[in-house]
Write a structure and sequence with these properties.
alpha/beta
């Protein structure tokens, strides 16, 4: 099975692209568990992410990915993964990331990371908080991929261009498989 992860800073079109790719390939996609988890937390407690949320978020993301993996044959599209959680954890908590997350995040379980560039319009919401740090975050995300030696391609351009480039990359992977 080919596993593709959409990876990159907030508000760079990952979810939109994940849905489009899943529809195009008639497969499943794995949503971002953290978003749902934190939205529920905000709605019920008016609180944002805290350090103690990291492990439950990681477990939820892995559970979703494993459930969907069992239901597809050829291709799974992931709207984020634990490497993204690791990057955000280290960024927001001065280098801190639970060892369990680091260990799982640095396993290369994906055929390709599609790193989404920051040339999409910022869409504000209660869970997004750094519209002026997008370039810095992109550099951090890319540096993590290089550090881990994970295969990646950068997706730039408008929604149609990103989709077209992602399909080209995924088609190449499917032909090799």
């Amino acid at each position: 099975m080919i596993k593709v992860v959409l990876y990159g800073p907030e508000s760079t079109g990952k979810t939109t692209l994940a849905k489009q790719l899943a529809e195009h390939y008639n497969t499943l996609w794995v949503p971002e568990f953290m978003r749902e988890f934190l939205q529920k937390k905000w709605d019920s407690k008016k609180k944002l992410v805290e350090r103690e949320d990291l492990i439950p978020i990681a477990k939820g993301q892995l559970r979703l990915e494993n459930e969907r993996s069992e239901r597809v044959n050829d291709l799974l599209i992931c709207d984020t993964n634990l490497l993204e959680l690791k990057v955000y954890s280290e960024y927001y908590y001065d280098g801190y990331c639970p060892d369990e997350i680091k260990e799982e995040a640095t396993k290369n379980n994906y055929n390709i990371y599609l790193l989404t560039y920051i040339d999409t319009p910022w869409e504000a919401d209660i869970l997004r908080d750094r519209p002026n740090n997008r370039e810095e975050m992109f550099r951090i995300f890319e540096a993590e991929l290089k550090k881990q030696g994970f295969p990646y391609e950068i997706l730039k351009g408008n929604e149609k261009e990103r989709f077209k480039n992602a399909v080209k990359i995924i088609d190449t992977l499917l032909k090799k498989n």
